[in-house]
Inverse folding.
């Protein structure tokens, strides 16, 4: 079964990169432009195997998004990876406090992205 | 297929342009006193996104600069810094440099570090004055995870024949499961590092009845991993669960000998033992209350939601596809003209269903054409933002305080028109600041506000776009312009010129009003270049000035370059289209209007002015000059210097919109010809470039030109 | 190249080349058929001012502007051609498309490449520059046109 991943990022370039990296690894990529859009996508989709989200986004940022996802009964256990340009410990702590499963440091290469996904979603 | 990374890279630069626009918009809002947190956030995000993408493509210079910029903006975001005049000016400059870096990165050009470095240093200094001392500020903390991992792999132990065996005790805490992590996957990841033996300890699992919280995690593992990868690689696997488990990693004392693991299973990971059922949430069912993550579920935080409206849905389309569509619509227009002609020729009466159906078809085609043209249209905003930068730079270079007012930024124009307007507009804006506005002190002395104003307006007016560049400077000093033109021999000393005519002298080639040639406006490049560029777009530029009040230039342009309003004329049996925008007047010559001038030339006297007479048929080499021009039809067309020339044609057929077909791509440049079009009868007609034709004209109207046949490829010159 | 099947090869040593042969002022010429886009009847061309004599003008080829070259004028042959009888061969090389006005199309020839020989050095003959090879078919000498040499470059016609 193909792994399904929802990737949320407000940068079109990042979305393109994510799609390329994911589809290149045989993973089906669903994309959203911000947290709000991510939630809308989640309404339409069956629960994905994992979610990747940026932090700083318009309308609803990554923290708000993770919060909302974790608040949904069916999505509580979905692994969520946070995309971050900073590897600062503080940010990781915040991401975890918000309920993220792990993080990916931007810029990522497709391999590390997929490896991180495998670590949280098999 | 093209390289997907190259495609993403290209689209990254497109996105950068959008982000730069957002950035400038945000800074502008701040300057207008709207420095709320959302505006600051938008600005921050724009720079942040540019940095993120740039990192992905290894654009180091761009990343380094964006990082400094972002850090400084973060100070703003955290409230440690206030966006006052000085700070904002630096941010505007920062945006300009960022834009340079983006474009240079895109085009593969090096960016002059002499321009970048001082701004980078200023941004850094700005951040440093306010930043709370933090471990890694200023340093680019920007290490791709995989790279770090690879380094670890390479660095520590050199590959050995027998790899060390690591003993790992891994005991998840409840938080591990709550964060969505899954021990099974971590164990799998370990397996990828080398030979793994796993032992699951379920001794802590309580009986079902006692299992108050199934998510608490009662299982733990001891694992033995034979790998050359080193401890860092093993710890990397547990990176996400650091602090969410008890983890001990040590080199197993006895190598492969595992005394405390009586029945080591060969190598494979024990999938069933990982007890995913316990780790996964009990889908709704369990009586035990699962801990809610934190804030209530469902819809978004309303505060965040209200902040910005959802962006309008757009589709990105390859420009080539649009151009193809534009071409096809052009075909329809041509075909329709042909059809109309056949219908007419067939003698079908005006009120017949065929005629009225055709009429409706005509209307629909026009609508489609307009809609297709709108696809290529873009707001002039990006152009105006570039001009804002020119104002900032020119203001800095001249030491004049200048405010730019823009209006009609959302007016839409054809993309190519926008691109090709950039150079002439830049020149005009520089002129306005450099030559138009007085120095600040002089302004005050004249009772004007110290700060000069340059305004840039765009609007649609009767099917054309009008762009106005105005300054509130001293206006044109006409006596000085006149003096200068006479001294330069551009006009004779006794010329009697109206104010408008004097103003138009500014458009003469090589004319410069500033006494000292400024390093900004450049030497020798004058308003004539501006006029030529605008005429090449099928546009016109006019000038108006009031002494002491200021000067304004008005550019009027067609909305698109794909169609043209033309006059269809006949010359020597050939059909020629002349752009309407170039024609000032049409008239029939009386016998007394034409006077012989030189041995082979005529002039036409119109309202007490003598204009050169050109025979279009002879100029194009289609026939010999007519010699006698009485009763001939002439078109007055603007020359390069703005004064008209009289052009003889045999007949005027029609006035209509034609679809422009490039000639350059299929054949090459033809002197005096701008392009081609296809007429209703399917024949190709040439579209004249009147300015070019007049500037190359031999003007011979009395005896055959030196080489009368076009076969000889006449080398035309200005002199006769 | 591996010699898997020789049945379709007329000779062992080379590829077959297909040429479209035609008449220009009574002389036999040909072009590689791969460069031929279409063959069509003559149409009235719109003359281009200040163009070389061999450019007849431009015609409308399904919405595209197609320059027409009078081949006999280009090759400096006696041009007593009757325009109404002419045929236009539309050829493309290097992204440029042009219509060659010829007297008549003769045949499609399939020849092994080995049958083509280089033209001899003829310093006094300017037209030679436009011929890339020669061949003999049924005792007739057929000249292979060098299309890239014959098409004027963009610079050449910019007067």
């Amino acid at each position: 079964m193909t792994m399904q991943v929802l990737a949320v990022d407000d940068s079109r370039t990042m979305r393109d990169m994510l799609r390329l990296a994911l589809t290149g690894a045989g993973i089906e990529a669903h994309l959203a432009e911000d947290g709000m859009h991510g939630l809308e996508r989640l309404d339409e989709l069956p629960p994905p195997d994992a979610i990747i989200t940026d932090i700083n986004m318009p309308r609803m940022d990554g923290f708000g998004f993770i919060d909302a996802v974790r608040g949904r009964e069916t999505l509580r256990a979905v692994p969520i990876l946070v995309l971050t340009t900073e590897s600062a410990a503080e940010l990781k702590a915040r991401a975890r406090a918000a309920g993220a499963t792990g993080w990916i440091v931007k810029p990522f290469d497709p391999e590390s992205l997929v490896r991180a996904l495998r670590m949280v979603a098999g | 297929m093209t390289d997907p990374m190259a495609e993403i890279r290209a689209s990254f630069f497109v996105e950068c342009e959008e982000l730069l626009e957002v950035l400038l918009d945000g800074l502008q809002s701040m300057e207008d006193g709207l420095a709320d947190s959302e505006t600051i956030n938008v600005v921050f995000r724009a720079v942040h996104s540019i940095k993120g993408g740039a990192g992905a493509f290894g654009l180091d210079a761009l990343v380094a600069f964006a990082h400094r910029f972002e850090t400084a903006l973060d100070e703003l975001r955290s409230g440690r810094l206030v966006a006052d005049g000085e700070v904002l000016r630096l941010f505007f400059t920062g945006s300009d440099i960022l834009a340079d870096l983006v474009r240079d990165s895109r085009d593969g050009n090096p960016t002059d570090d002499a321009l970048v470095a001082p701004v980078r240093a200023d941004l850094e200094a700005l951040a440093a004055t306010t930043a709370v001392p933090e471990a890694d500020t200023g340093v680019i903390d920007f290490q791709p995870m995989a790279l770090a991992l690879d380094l670890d792999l390479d660095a520590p132990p050199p590959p050995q024949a027998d790899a060390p065996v690591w003993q790992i005790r891994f005991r998840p805490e409840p938080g591990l499961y709550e964060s969505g992590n899954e021990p099974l996957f971590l164990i799998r990841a370990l397996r990828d590092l080398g030979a793994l033996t796993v032992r699951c300890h379920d001794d802590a699992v309580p009986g079902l009845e006692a299992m108050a919280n199934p998510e608490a995690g009662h299982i733990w593992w001891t694992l033995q991993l034979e790998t050359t990868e080193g401890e860092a690689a093993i710890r990397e696997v547990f990176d996400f669960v650091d602090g969410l488990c008890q983890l001990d990693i040590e080199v197993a004392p006895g190598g492969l000998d595992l005394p405390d693991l009586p029945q080591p299973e060969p190598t494979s990971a024990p999938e069933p033992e990982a007890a995913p059922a316990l780790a996964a949430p009990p889908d709704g069912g369990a009586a035990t209350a699962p801990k809610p993550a934190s804030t209530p579920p469902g819809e978004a935080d309303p505060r965040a939601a209200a902040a910005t409206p959802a962006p309008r849905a757009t589709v990105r389309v390859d420009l080539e596809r649009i151009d193809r569509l534009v071409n096809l619509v052009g075909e329809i227009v041509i075909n329709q003209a042909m059809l109309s002609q056949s219908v007419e020729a067939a003698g079908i009466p005006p009120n017949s269903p065929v005629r009225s159906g055709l009429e409706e078809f005509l209307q629909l085609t026009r609508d489609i054409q307009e809609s297709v043209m709108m696809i290529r249209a873009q707001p002039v905003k990006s152009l105006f933002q570039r001009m804002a930068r020119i104002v900032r730079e020119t203001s800095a270079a001249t030491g004049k305080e200048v405010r730019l007012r823009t209006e009609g930024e959302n007016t839409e124009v054809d993309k190519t028109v926008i691109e090709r307007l950039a150079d002439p507009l830049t020149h005009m804006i520089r002129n306005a600041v450099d030559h138009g506005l007085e120095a600040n002190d002089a302004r005050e002395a004249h009772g004007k506000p110290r700060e000069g104003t340059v305004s840039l307006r765009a609007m649609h007016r009767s099917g054309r776009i009008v762009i106005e560049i105005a300054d509130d400077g001293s206006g044109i000093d006409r006596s000085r312009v006149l003096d200068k033109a006479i001294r330069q021999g551009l006009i004779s000393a006794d010329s009697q010129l109206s104010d408008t005519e004097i103003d138009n002298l500014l458009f003469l080639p090589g004319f410069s009003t500033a006494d000292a040639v400024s390093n900004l406006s450049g030497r020798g490049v004058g308003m004539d270049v501006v006029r030529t560029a605008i005429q090449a777009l099928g546009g016109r530029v006019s000038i108006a000035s009031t002494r002491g009040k200021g000067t304004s230039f008005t550019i009027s342009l067609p909305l698109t370059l794909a169609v043209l309003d033309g006059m269809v004329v006949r010359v020597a049996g050939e059909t020629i289209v002349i752009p309407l925008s170039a024609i000032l007047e049409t008239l029939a010559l009386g016998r007394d209007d034409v006077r012989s001038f030189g041995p082979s030339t005529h002039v036409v006297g119109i309202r007490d002015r003598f204009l050169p007479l050109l025979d279009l048929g002879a100029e194009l080499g289609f026939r010999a000059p007519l010699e006698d021009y009485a009763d001939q039809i002439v078109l007055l067309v603007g020359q390069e210097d703005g004064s008209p020339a009289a052009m003889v044609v045999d007949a005027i057929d029609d006035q209509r919109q034609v679809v422009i077909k490039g000639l350059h791509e299929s054949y090459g440049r033809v002197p005096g010809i701008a392009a081609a079009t296809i007429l209703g009868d399917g024949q190709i007609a040439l579209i004249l470039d009147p300015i070019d034709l007049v500037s190359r004209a031999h003007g011979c109207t009395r005896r055959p030109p030196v080489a009368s046949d076009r076969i000889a490829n006449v080398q035309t010159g200005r002199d006769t | 190249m591996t010699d898997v099947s020789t049945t379709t090869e007329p000779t062992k040593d080379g590829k077959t080349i297909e040429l479209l042969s035609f008449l220009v002022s009574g002389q036999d010429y040909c072009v590689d058929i791969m460069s031929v886009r279409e063959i069509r009847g003559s149409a009235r061309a719109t003359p281009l001012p200040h163009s070389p004599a061999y450019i007849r003008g431009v015609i409308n080829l399904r919405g595209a502007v197609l320059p027409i070259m009078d081949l006999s004028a280009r090759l400096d042959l006696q041009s007593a051609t009757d325009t109404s009888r002419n045929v236009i061969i539309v050829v493309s090389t290097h992204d440029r498309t042009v219509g060659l006005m010829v007297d008549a199309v003769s045949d499609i020839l399939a020849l092994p490449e080995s049958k083509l020989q280089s033209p001899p050095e003829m310093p006094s003959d300017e037209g030679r520059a436009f011929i890339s090879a020669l061949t003999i078919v049924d005792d007739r000498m057929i000249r292979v046109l060098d299309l890239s040499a014959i098409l004027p470059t963009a610079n050449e016609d910019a007067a």
